[in-house]
User: Fold this.
Amino acid sequence: MHQISRRRFVALTAAGVAVAPLPVWGSAAVPPVTAQEIVDRIQKSIGGEWNNPKSVDGFKAGDPSAAVTGIVTTSLATLDVLAQAVKAGANMIITSEPTYFSKGDTPVPMVRRPGAGRPPVAGTPGANAAPAASATPPEPPPLVPGPPDAVFTGKSDFIKKNNLIVWRFSDHWNARTPNPFAQGLVDAMGWTKYANGDATQVNIPAMALSALATHAKTVLKSRGGMRVVGDPKLAVRKVALLPGTTPVEVAIKVLPGADVIVAGEVREWETVQYVRDTFDMGGKKALILVGRVVSEGPGMQACAQWLKTVVPEVKTTWMPVVDPYWRPTL
Amino acid sequence: MSTLTAGEVVARMKANHGMAWSERSRRDTYKFGGPETVVKGIATAMFCSYQELEHAVAAGCNMIIPHEDTFWRDDDVVTTVSGDPGYAKKMDFLREHDMVIYRMHDNVHALGNRDFTYIGLARALGITQYETTTLHHFQLPETTLGEMAATFQKRLGDKALRVVGDPKMKMSRLQLGVGYATPNVNSPDVDVVVSGELQETDGALDDPEYVLDANTLGIAKGWIMLGHHISEEQGMLEMAAWIKGFVPEVPVQLVKVDEPFWVPK
Assistant:
């Protein structure tokens, strides 16, 4: 895992390297595959409905009719990952998380009204959770494009200049059984032989919570994103794997059947307090948070493996994301 | 012995609030006990965890005024936890010690420039003197993100603090958030956001990814997440002092607990 240095990134952006090489089709015996054709194949292989308007999956940038020179899967299409894709000659990026810094995933920042900040979220000031006096709450002001933002622009320009195509693949990949994100974590942790159909629940040989945390940290190359609740000496055997983001309702349902939950992210004022209280009241339970993006890495590695069977003629590579977090040491 | 009731304490909080008190808040209500409960002592607390309840009882307090939820959900609706053994145990403890819980959340954040959580956090971070005329914005002597994070970590004793951004980036313009109320890091007049927590992605602005990409483009941005608990617990000291000012009959104090996390080596 390496990050592209800022100097190298600038070189990639400025120099002629910028345009991804055209695919070399040998004797033209293999016709080029477009991004749309790849998506069609993925949809057919996955099956089910693909018309849920609430799904975040879909094209976020680039021309779906362009020929694909190579595919990169990742949990987060950072500029660093995009630059590595360009360097590797790939022009299609398949990501499980947004590219343009929000669920809306638009190449320009959107605001509720010009100059407005984040809309109120439960648990924040401003989100005064009083039920509205009338039965119908007032409509929030519509999202409008905000002022230009150098980071949005820089990323959008890089994608355009390099003719990259970005496709988000989260909801439908996550809906598979066994869950590929959980299975990816199971495999990465070396627990494949303990998985029994449901990758979200694995019984491992008992080990101390501290040893498990250290193992996860090593395997996931965690820098500073990992945090643990519970007794470091607690012997854990039943592990619940909840990559991505987990609401407290799920944690409350899962914890009684597990010794430890290994999760991507949860809300600290809900699940973290639930596990802390359970532990403080004598329950032998623990929680390991590894970070949302890091937790989805192995699942996107599994996605790259799977794509080799769906699009065998295109080279597919997984690009791990460096743990976004670090921390000083006290 | 004082016959002060919880209802009287809440009435005095309303009377001394000085801003529009939200009567309709779902958060700021009794979570256990009620206005008639007789108060022996008052404990302000960040959460209403079992450990904080135990500390409060040990200190002779039966009225808890926490900032956050009691039953592990923001709305404290107990349908999902009513069958949980922890719920029964917590309820037993509350009954046994004749406790009363009144949450103070929305009406703390409604205080604007007197919001205890911001005042307490700025004090604990040692940045109060650098606040600008813009609320929650601070102009610090220029430093690097790495030095800033290390300094804050030492001041708070915050083992599980997390930082996004190049430690060598130069920082001076800081915007403070608390808890989950984390301001967008892409404001042009802000180098670094310091707050409690926020979801990593799929939000209104995914700050970690934004900071990573900003740094790749050579734009100085940093993001320091202190943890929800540590970021707002500081201000519960200010809240205790405020209550003490109009409740002379019983002891009022902050009950502190350690941050919930430890970090692997």
In short: DSSP finds ten helices and 13 strands in chain A. Residues 112 and 143 of chain A are 4 Å apart (CA to CA).
